[in-house]
Amino acid sequence: MYPDDVKYHKEHAWVKISGNKATIGITFYAQESLGDIVYVDAPEVESTVEAGTELTQIESTKATSSVICPLSGTILEFNEDLIDSPEIINEDPYGKGWIAVIELEDKSELTTLMDADEYEKYLEEEVKLK
């Protein structure tokens, strides 16, 4: 359910690092909490984003939610398949349902992210609090 080859952010985003680039999406928990996703707002390619700020917004049948960017950088690419088929995020959140690719500004921010085990423990604690 939570792949080991990605890192996780407390705001329920995942990051897959390849060199100086990071592919970003939302976790299984996030997409399950949102329900059926009906729209993903395209972030502006070539704009910069700071860690902890909004990358984009996702609309579902339940609510509109911000996707918080786990790392700082420049947006290189948006998954344009999500424009016509936003439900891909529900179907394959760690594969075809990726949202954006950014060029990393500061690799030291990676130390703030969790591995799969840490994220699952975080979820257990967070769910208990609700």
What would CATH call the class?
A: Mainly Beta
Extended strand count = 9
Assign the CATH topology: OB fold (Dihydrolipoamide Acetyltransferase, E2P)
- Major sheet: size, sense and barrel closure? 6 strands, antiparallel
Please characterize this protein's 3D structure.
- The protein is α+β, with helices and mostly antiparallel strands.
- The protein has a single domain (7-129), classed as OB fold (Dihydrolipoamide Acetyltransferase, E2P) (Beta Barrel).
- It is built from four helices and nine strands, in the order E-E-E-H-E-E-E-E-E-H-H-E-H.
- The protein has helices at 28-34, 81-84, 88-91, 116-129; strands spanning 7-8, 13-18, 21-26, 37-40, 48-49, 54-60, 64-68, 73-78, 100-104.
- The protein has a six-stranded antiparallel sheet.
- Strand 6 and strand 7 (64-68) form a beta hairpin.
- The longest helix has 14 residues, at 116-129.
- The mean pLDDT is 95.
Write the layout of secondary structure elements.
Layout: E1 7-8, E2 13-18, E3 21-26, H1 28-34, E4 37-40, E5 48-49, E6 54-60, E7 64-68, E8 73-78, H2 81-84, H3 88-91, E9 100-104, H4 116-129
Describe this protein with a few key phrases.
alpha+beta, OB fold (Dihydrolipoamide Acetyltransferase, E2P), three-stranded antiparallel beta sheet, 22% helix, globular, 4 helices, six-stranded antiparallel beta sheet, 130 residues, 9 strands
Short description:
The protein is an alpha+beta fold.
